[in-house]
Amino acid sequence: MIYIYALIDPFSKEIRYIGKSIRPKERLTNHCNDHSTTWRTNWIQSVLKKGSRPVLLILESLNNNDDWQASETEWISKGRAKGWRLTNCTDGGDGLHNPPQEVKDKIIKTWIGRKHSERTKKLIGEKSKGRKHTEESKRRMKKLMTGRKITWGDKLSKANSKLTDDQIHEIRKLINEKVSQYVIADMFNVHQGTISNIKNKKCYEYVKD
User: What is the pTM of this model?
Assistant: First the structure.
């Protein structure tokens, strides 16, 4: 699932940011750990300094094949029309897919060397412990996988690839520079598991360095 979410100021009760994520709770944690210079981070850091954190609200749930870009753009446009003081710097729908080099450099500078605090590690561990797929998720995955066959090896894998060879090279470079897998996943609009598989050479192995 893909979620269009809002971040609400816990003091004024205003919606101050609208975004998209497949893991909105983890995305909120990433927002809180972000110290870059943007309207969003400046607002979030001001809330944290007051001893609170933004409130997460799911605005819309979408299937993976739905047009999330249009939905995000529509929500941001609707919010601005209603006078919401949004901290979004863009009109939405961009998703940082294959961003320009200057944006990549800024992200890398922000994330290199960053580590989760012991408290964050503990919270992630508690949330992940014992996590199981729902019966509905199991049925959906079974339906997607039933009858699937890979018979042409690398040629078929390459034909079905979502990422280009250049993007794979760039992802490997970011991995080597210790950029968070979640950040890289958001940059290229893929699941974090895809980045992990690229790192462990479980997919796109036909792309040579």
Answer: 0.48
The answer to whether the CB of 65 falls within 8 A of the CB of 18 is no
Q: What is the pLDDT of residues 89-148, one digit of tens each?
A: 777 765 554 455 665 666 666 666 666 667 766 776 666 666 666 777 777 777 766 766
Structure tokens at 130: 């014992």
Q: What is the number of structural domains in the chain?
A: 2
The 10 Å Cβ neighbour count of residue 139 is: 11
Cβ–Cβ under 8 Å, residues 22 and 191: yes
Q: Which of 21, 4, 25, 11 is nearest to 79 (CA)?
A: 4
Q: Domain residues for 103? A: 96-114+150-209
In sequence order, what E strands does 11-110 have? 15-21, 55-62
Rounded-to-integer distance, Cα 43 and Cα 154, Å: 47
